[in-house]
Amino acid sequence: MLKVPALAKAAAASQSAKPDQNVLTAAKGGGIIFAGSLFQYAVRFVVGIVLARTLGVEQYGLYNLSMTVAAVASGLTLMGFTLTLVRYISLFASQRDTAKLWGTLQLGVGLPTVLSICAGIGLFALANPVAVYLFHEPRLAPLLRLGSLMIPFLALGDLAAAATRGFKTMHYTVIAQYVSRPVVKLILLGVFLITGLTVGKAVSAHVVSVIVASLMLVYFLNKLFSLKRPWKSARRETRRMLKFSLPLYVSYLIQTFRGNLQTVLLGALHTITGVGIFSVATQVNLIGQMFHSSVVTSSMPVISELYGRGKRKQMERMYQTTARWTFALNFPLFLIILMFPGQILSIFGSSFVDGTTALIILAWADLAKTGTGICGAVLDMTGRTRLKLVNAIIMSILMVGLNVLLIPRWGVIGAATATLTAVAADNILRLIEVYILFRLVPYNLSFLKPITAGLVAAGTVLLLGRLLPAEASLVYTAVGVITLLVVYAGVILLLGLSEEDRTVLARLRVRVMALFPRS
Fold first, then answer.
1. Of 194, 404, 411, 504, which one is least surrounded by beta carbons within 10 A?
2. Are 257 and 75 in contact (CB under 8 A)?
3. What is the number of structural domains in the chain?
4. pTM of the model
């Protein structure tokens, strides 16, 4: 039966909320996911440095290419059911309909998992022709076979994580995928470093970490909703779920795997070395996306509820607040990459500095994405799935077409340019569509505060650069980054915080004080 805590939580979430509570809900959920994402990124950054320096740029490219192929194969089998599970589990849990919940899990988790097993078997069997004829790299074949073992577990883990989020429980995803998975991988890599790290052992460490995280998420899901129940007691809403999921499938696939698709195209149309450089440049830019994706994930149920209740004013306030948050946090990170690209990439090794221009271009792409707010989530949670499908088709044509056109000519820079063009076009299109449908814009005068703060901070760093000696580049980088962040935060505070910002900070202060009670 459905566990009482999960049922009560889902039922409470379905009730109407005050405007401030809507913001707090998004901030709390986004904060949990962001904290986990930040930890995951930190470990991934360390792992990236270790692998890049130990394996070298070519072997690191082989590692990333094999992992990318497995991730793409797994994503192809999901059929858009991750968002479908979030929506319908939340709906049926609020209605206390255990039969439909069980049917949703059977269809939403079972069908993609079966498909992922078939995909894993297929890649294992076809590893050699894929390596030789697609990537022209026979050394890739054994790595693809290793990677194929994790395809079913990748899919199962993503589906189970989505199901737990449907029960309004964000921390299980964080524990399993954002904390345990990178920690297990880091521990195994540490052991392999002592015994002799090879690209095969690096892939094996990744595979084991994925399996561990997947099994943890199945365990957590079972805690929320017991999976030990009669199969025939379920009521499956097959047609309804497929109607919702299939139009989102292409869009979800493109958004989630745009970097992976480019990695495959880089390997096929350029060089393995280019794959390694592009992977590092993409990884550096991930931190700018983390808070945005965290806020999007936590805002989805709130937007859905506000739209269903006709609360357009609250919906607009939510739309503008979250857009300002994602932009304000990403803007200083964008400026750091813009001002210190070579120094950042040199951390991974001198061979990766060739990706400086690509890193800057990708930073602009991330700014275009985070600067347009949660317009994609608004379309999703208001049921505009067909419109989302049209957007996905347009973006896929741009993404694939530009990569095929530009990668043979410009290599890594061509892949980055294709990303910037496709991401900017997609987000501007969604921004326009939200305005036409709902007369909502994510911008107001409060956006001038982070823009002003960023310009002042960047100007201060440039002035500081004239005062420091040229040979002190490493010192200048460290001092410059710290100065930029301090000046940026200081100007934001001087210009004044919004009501929503004060509300969130007040709640955060209460939570922190509760952790450290006075004696």
1. 194
2. yes
3. 2
4. 0.66
